[in-house]
């Protein structure tokens, strides 16, 4: 089953290396996890384009292999013409704190992987929204490929969201096409793989930018959060979206440290792929652009923005083509200007939205103490207040970018709730945990970047 | 010095809470049911026969359930769930609520079907299937 995704993942990893040819061993691990998401994204976009021209034919594997050989050839050529030689990675001796944290992180990872496996085996076709949207869309596309455009018919009941972007559905359909079997294992593997990639991205980025101890602590935090772990088994789009949000934030942070244009090109790709995963990703495309402009306002932001745009242009053009030409209208925007305006003027709606946001802040994550929920974001804020580090110039840039991103994204969520045509209480109840999940890894990463490492905290006083 | 101990304390607390939450989460997955249960696969089996009798593979087919029969008792959440599952198993057919299509599926319990057929039965050729499913073909189409 993994083989169905192996070629796209290798393609993604090599493309990342081609755009950002950094050789450090920790960076290579980070790039491997980034390659999973980017590879799956390229595969999904390629299958969409392939279906647009060759629907009903069965040689997509040739396209996948051609893409792999193309980036492999380019990466090999680049490596041969590189002046900087490969250095043998020096094995680091781990301190006691690092060893203990890594051991605990591995234990929590194993327990959480067992949870994911147990959940997946009890929900072999994913959860409610998977049947309703992503796996359903994949069935529409795969089962009658010659007429696949009928998958976006305006006659489909709006509750099935035929307007949703196709990242998951296209990967599932291409996997079934490659295996010539509509097996539920394809969406299962995709869901679990993206969850593991999200944790891998989080941990390896902290190892690159902070320390091994902070990375292990990050693993404990992220995979000790039931809301995150369960999402990896549900076959929904929120954790894949969180993955691309996180990847974009990390790449912007790495740009602050390394000033390599390729990092912003990659950030453009990951933001564009976020828009290919879910509609919320389109808000994120704007949020990331705003973050780059505002954070680097004194450092030629338009040049930086053009690198970001270079990465964004292909995935986002395809998203726009899908949304403007193929997809039926979105139900969330179906209210019309007059009714939306009337809803925006209703103070009670605003109070209800704020109340739900506040409540979720207190309970998000799935931690419980004596049967009472304990909000992970609140715990992280307390942790930040106790362990924050002095703000350096680089950290200020990173935090500014992340704060702008988060503010624009939350404003986007807020605006959707204000104008939603659905019953507001139902809509908030149904979705608020998931929108917190989308931004949670990003928030956790920002906090761990701005706090002391466990190595420092547990160091013997000098 | 005191701050250092607070910092160490919160790290230890977070690790303990993460570990506890992970174990609790693993145990909680048992409440999702048995690994041998697959309600979606059961739904696929239930619809296999009726699906084979629908004379087209892409297009729109009507769908009614107990909720469409005046006076019939039903659970709204179950009814919605069955509608979603029906769309999932019948893809790439598009299901549309109501019986305005030439071909329609009725997912009705015995009592609801009796009530429905009294007022509507004459307008359709009805083919019954196991499990309260009926294929309705508009008469004279």
Commentary on this structure:
- The complex is a heterodimer of chains A (462) and B (141).
- In chain A, strand 1 and strand 2 form a beta hairpin.
- Chain A has one domain.
- Chain A has 462 residues and is mainly alpha-helical.
- The radius of gyration of chain A is 22 Å and the shape is globular.
- Chain A contains 19 helices and two strands.
- With 141 residues, chain B is of the alpha/beta class.
- Helices cover 48% and strands 21% of the residues of chain B.
- The interface between A and B is large, with 58 and 44 residues.
Q: Report the major sheet of chain A.
A: 2 strands, antiparallel
Strand segment count of chain A: 2
- Sheet with most strands: strand arrangement of chain A: 1-2
Order of helices and strands of chain B: HHEHEEHEE
**Radius of gyration of chain A from CA coordinates:** 22 Å
Helices, strands, pairings?
The complex is a heterodimer of chains A (462) and B (141).
Chain A: H1 2-19, H2 25-54, H3 60-80, H4 96-122, H5 128-143, H6 167-179, H7 185-209, H8 212-223, H9 226-231, H10 238-258, H11 261-277, H12 280-295, H13 301-326, H14 337-344, H15 347-363, E1 367-369, E2 372-374, H16 376-387, H17 393-419, H18 424-449, H19 454-457
Antiparallel strand pairs in A: 1-2
Chain B: H1 2-28, H2 39-53, E1 59-65, H3 76-90, E2 93-97, E3 103-107, H4 110-120, E4 124-129, E5 133-138
Parallel strand pairs in B: 1-2, 1-3
Antiparallel strand pairs in B: 3-5, 4-5
Helix pairs in contact in B: 2-3
From the structure above, extract its key features:
heterodimer, A: 462 residues, mainly alpha, two-stranded antiparallel ribbon, 19 helices, B: 141 residues, 5 strands
Could you provide a short overview of the structure?
The complex is a heterodimer of chains A (462) and B (141). Chain A is mainly alpha-helical and 462 residues long. Chain A contains 19 helices and two strands.
